[in-house]
Amino acid sequence: MANCSICSKQAIYVIKSGGLALCKKHFLEYFDRKVRRTIRKNKLFRKNEHIVIAVSGGKDSLSLLHYTVNLSKRARMGWRITALTIDEGISGYRDYTIKRVEELSSSLGVELKIASFKDYFGYTLDEVVKISGERGLPYLPCTYCGVFRRYLLNRVAREISGTVLATAHHLDDVVQTYLINIFNNNWSNIHKLTPSLTSIHKLFVRRVKPFYEVLEKETTLYAILNGLYPSERTECPYAPLSFRWQVRRVLNYLEESRPGLKYSTMKSLMEATSLKNVASSEAMTCIVCGEPSSHEVCKACQLRAELGLLELREVKT
Ligand code: SF4
Ligand code: ZN
To answer: Which domain holds residue 149?
Structure first.
């Protein structure tokens, strides 16, 4: 490994596209500068916010919780921080990651709220996947998981009076989602892929992505350097079934042969999102559950109805 381009100590991170090598100290400064720039440029956090951080227990969300708590001490903006974990009910996986969230929240002195699919929807994700298979429905586990998790994050963040919901999506996640939506010709979703997503719906909690410009390998390194990287690697058993899994592999392969490709794809996304005002997303109210929605019936209620877990007659009055 090369020497640090700034201080000549042993480098631990090399940015091939920029011809830069960084030691531990200068990598952490570079990481901090990048995240703070995203926060400042996009006005992600305001004074006296109640920041709710979505923490699954993976390396990225543990890093976001750790980073934001430390930034809060430096910034002195009067932030209150709560970690919010969604327990989807994935046996042999989620229990283990929840333990990691509990340990980190308690060591950082942060409040933790856990909300489960079982409590809110009556079924775990494992049960939903089984019912879906029995009914011959065409959806993959990640479809249910993603829709129900987004729904619950917003609802619970609001119930605990959060003013902003921060997720640990990094540049790799954003670029993967961008490409998946291009493949599906889903431009309404592409326009939501901004560092900060607001809505004119009063029940929608503003959603932000502080790691928007940080590569996955950089959040991984941040986690390792701060002792947050899990000693035992656990992967969701449903992950390899998803299309995202394939897109991720292809993108990593392409980045190897063309360093900087992920950044240039993100620039393309920024151009695309600047073409349309996104403030109108989630502007309607679901006629079944009363939550914000981009259609008359929200996606979570539509999926539950198809699973036979909800009568569409249960219209909220
Ligand atoms: Fe949910 Fe899919 Fe992620 Fe597993 S891989 S936690 S099913 S979104
Ligand atoms: Zn609904």
So the answer is: 43-280
